[in-house]
Amino acid sequence: MFDFSARHIIEALRSGVPSREVGEYFSEARPGMRAKVEKLLEAAKEENKSGGMVFKGRYGEGKTHMLHTAFNMAQDRNMVVSMVSLGKETPIDKPWELYRRLMANTWLPGAKQPGIREKAEELTSGSSLTSELLAYTAAELETNKLYFLLQAMTRTQDEEERAAFLADLEGDFVSPALIKRSYRRISGVPAKFSENFSKTKHWRDYYFFMSHFIRQLGYDGWVILLDEAELIGRLGKKTRPKCYVRMQEFLKPDPRMEKTVTFIAFSESYQADVIEKRNEFQNMADFYGEGTEEEKAAVSVLNAILSAPELAPLSREEVIRVLRDVEQFHALAYEWQPDVPAEDIYKATEKGGYLLRTKLRGAIELLDQLYQYGEVGDIRVGQLTSESLEEEELPDLEEK
Fold first, then answer.
1. Total-model pTM
2. Which of 41, 209, 240, 287 falls between 20 and 30 A from 77, CA-CA?
3. pLDDT digits (tens, 9 = 90+) for 256-267
């Protein structure tokens, strides 16, 4: 019988769609980057040091695979992982929207499906965990909205209310009026909010709470993986500065972000196409004012992108080693013995271009032909190209 895991890896490589299994396999080809990831994860887990890192690479050279490698490394360390691709539907300049997307793509160690709701559903009135969370939300956050929400959620007998409050913890924010109405009915006294909650102003409360909740559940940290950050370059010059400032809050988080590490993947072309071509440093000074805290934060992120470690293209010898492994996976996946030198596979894929992704797909096509026909015809995997980063100004929707 064929090896299911090997078949999955071959099919993922054939399609060009990254997966956690493929990321784990590719990690051996990136020992330097793996060491940097490991250092940050260990600092968070063992020393309670939160932080972040930007890394970059050319299109098709394995940035998403590297994030999947970080995913596996974090889960092996009993850490919760959230992974999303940035873009119009996942805007980092609107972190309250980003939070909702992150919660929908949050994986507990060993979980088969994403989500944190199952753990939130276990909270009950009077339990030691609920009592601890109530004390935390009453004292440590900017507002006490989450305090009253947890009180109402754990004490209400109304299933619709409870479902709405659980959804709120996932970023589908309910109106304060519902919380106040439910709390007064349950307790007989009014809920006195310390400040009117606004998601655009108080969104940090949810990130702080979630990092604390994850730790109280017994996990050793929260890892946030942000892919395709180069899509920020498509946004307008009034939106990009906000993205950089928000990004800085993930790379150098508030101390209330407990054991939280963020990895952000950028295309190598971002420096030339956006930072240099659009004079981003001057844009920050013009937008925020030179010397302001916001301008300093944005500039810090721009410098982080410029100095970010890069996924350098693999050497010829490294690519040949990877192709030899691909050959072995193909043999396991289809129960046959290719018996073709990896050097010959490499030569057959050279005309497809320099991208590792293209070489892998070319190698699989060659092995497919050998497996099906016993000989190799013309390999037609073409060179992949990067997408342009055309500026597109988006409107600001400052909702409350």
1. 0.84
2. 209
3. 999 999 999 999
